[in-house]
Amino acid sequence: MPKKLHVTNQIRKLRFFAGEMTQQELAEKTGASRQTIIAVEAGKYSPSLELAFRIAEAFGVPIGEVFGYEEQEDTK
Amino acid sequence: MSYQEKRTLTSMVAGLAVLVSYCIYILNAYHKGWFAPDDMKFCATVMLVFIGIGVAVAVVFQILFHILLSMGVAIRKGDCDDKAIEKEIVSATVEDEMDKLIELKAMKLGFIIAGAGMVAALLAVVLDAPNAVMLNVLFLSMNVGSLAEGALSLYYYRRGVYHA
Fold first, then answer.
1. How many CB atoms lie within 10 A of CB B112?
2. What is the DSSP letter of A62?
3. Could you tell me the end-to-end alpha-carbon distance of chain B, in angstroms, rounded to an integer?
4. Which strand (E) or helix (H) includes residue B156?
5. A31, A46, A48: residue with CB nearest B162
6. How many H helices and E strands in chain A?
7. Domain limits of chain B?
8. pLDDT at residue B164 greater than cutoff 70
9. Of A28, A34, A51, which is closest to B97 when you measure between CB atoms?
10. Interface of chain B toward chain A, CB-CB under 8 angstroms
11. Longest dimension (CA), chain A
12. Where are the beta strands (DSSP E) in chain A?
């Protein structure tokens, strides 16, 4: 059985390099709520492909620079 | 705490208040002998009245919540510019894919509890329990399901939610 994947992201770093863009500004650019941006940034929510592309577009970088993944050890 | 969490909490408080009021009223009525255990008409009437009260209370709570939210935004921003307050509220009330996913997952739990209540109500009939028991089990399971739905939403907003 394939191992579970944990989606990682570089949103905090990208926000910093985008002139310390606020989570609210990113939320407005992507059409998501600030709550969702906070959750995505904290790794508590994996966004849909559509939102992931929108986030990447907001930073002007390819999606692979924003999101990545790591294999998670099965804790069961 | 986000707008969605506050709104869910408000709905839960309203729902809980109505549920507790109903339980107190129906137990009091039973002890005073206002209805026979097999009298479904009395229980059904009381439930309909409390459903109406529940809707009214939910609407009043939501209105009060939005008034308090606007006041909170105005105090925090330090001015009373209507457009600025409206803009902040609109951005806070955006409902997106995460909200929908949480709503769907929470609703699933609500339906499971209501379904279990339906089975329990049918079992009560099979086991020759009074009709009032069957009706109350149905009513209570729906209310408890609704509360559990809210509680699970709050949990997901706090701890995060994942696909699959």
1. 13
2. -
3. 26
4. helix B131-159
5. A46
6. 5, 2
7. 3-159
8. no
9. A51
10. 2-4, 91-92, 94-99, 157, 159-163
11. 43
12. 4-9, 67-72
Distance CA B139, CA B127 (A): 19
pLDDT exceeds 60 at position A75: no
Helix, strand or coil, per DSSP, at residue B29: helix
- CA gap B102, B118 in Å, rounded: 24
Given a cut of 70, whether residue B79 has pLDDT beyond it is: no
CB contacts under 8 A, A 49-68 vs B, are 51
Which amino acid makes up residue A9? N
Q: What angle do CA B69, B54, B10 make, to 5 degrees?
A: 25
Q: What does the alpha-carbon distance between residue A46 and residue A51 come to, in Å, rounded to a whole number? A: 10
pLDDT at A4: 79
- Phi, psi (5° rounding) for residue A67? -115, 145
Q: Which of A3, A1, A17, A2 is nearest to A74 (CA)?
A: A3
Q: What pTM was estimated for this model as a whole?
A: 0.82
**Which two structure tokens, joined as six digits, stand for B62?**
């939501």
Least confident among B33-47, B77-91, B110-124 = B77-91
Residue B152's pLDDT band (cuts 50, 70, 90): very high
Indicate yes or no: CB of A35 within 8 angstroms of CB of B95.
no
- Do residues A30 and A37 touch, judged by C-beta distance below 8 A? yes
